[in-house]
Amino acid sequence: MYSRMADQLDWVSPAADRECRRIPPTGILGSVTGDSQRPERPIRYFEDYVPGLTVDCGTFSVSEEEIVAFAKEYDPQPSHTDPVAAAESPVGGLIASGWQTTILSMRLLAEHFISGETGLGAAGIDEIRWPRPVRPGDTLRVRATVADARRSRSKPDRGIVHSVTEITNADGETVMTMKATNFFLTRQPSAG
């Protein structure tokens, strides 16, 4: 399953990404837009993730076909796989799986917020919320904001960053929020 997911994301290493511009991926996940118009991702160290920093990570869109294909493979519920059944349900029409929204958001976070050169992984996601449905044809914007950052007491070469990600639709309505904790290398490991 992982290899199929990685293939759908058209994943390449950060080093390869810097060497060439890729065609944005399409397929069962959705379409990440605007790759060729976005500036190169900066390398950020822990010291650069100051509370209040907000990064606009770009947009992605999902079509009916992408919603249904993803859901049939990973989240086979009628509200995601069957337009007729979804129309007769409380959601009133086909909606994307929250996991599809999360995966596409992660793609943009990895490209524009999480520095591949200094990122040391995540402690986890503390909370994910999907307050409004994502519908076929929606274009969604991803923004990440640093909520808190502190240097590790036990490992001076890294810091801990708490962030809040908000995904909004074209009407400015929030369709997803996520709170995460990541680790990043410091620029100056001995500085206190």
Characterization of this structure:
The structure is a single chain. Helix content is 26%, strand content 30%. It starts with a helix and ends in a 7-residue tail after the last strand. It has six helices and six strands. It is elongated and about 60 Å long. The protein has a six-stranded antiparallel β-sheet with strand order 1-2-4-5-6-3, with helices on one face. It has one domain: Thiol Ester Dehydrase, Chain A (Roll), CATH 3.10.129.10. It is an alpha+beta fold and 192 residues long. A hairpin with a 6-residue loop joins strand 4 and strand 5.
Key features of this structure:
single chain, 192 residues, alpha+beta, Thiol Ester Dehydrase, Chain A, 6 helices, disordered N terminus
Identify the overall geometry: elongated
**Helix content, binned percent:** 25-40%
The helix count comes to: 6
* Strand content bin: 25-35%
Largest sheet: spatial strand order? 1-2-4-5-6-3
Radius of gyration: 18 Å
Report the biggest beta sheet as strand number plus sense, adding barrel if it closes: 6 strands, antiparallel
Would you identify the CATH architecture?
Answer: Roll
CATH topology: Thiol Ester Dehydrase, Chain A
Distance between the termini: 43 Å
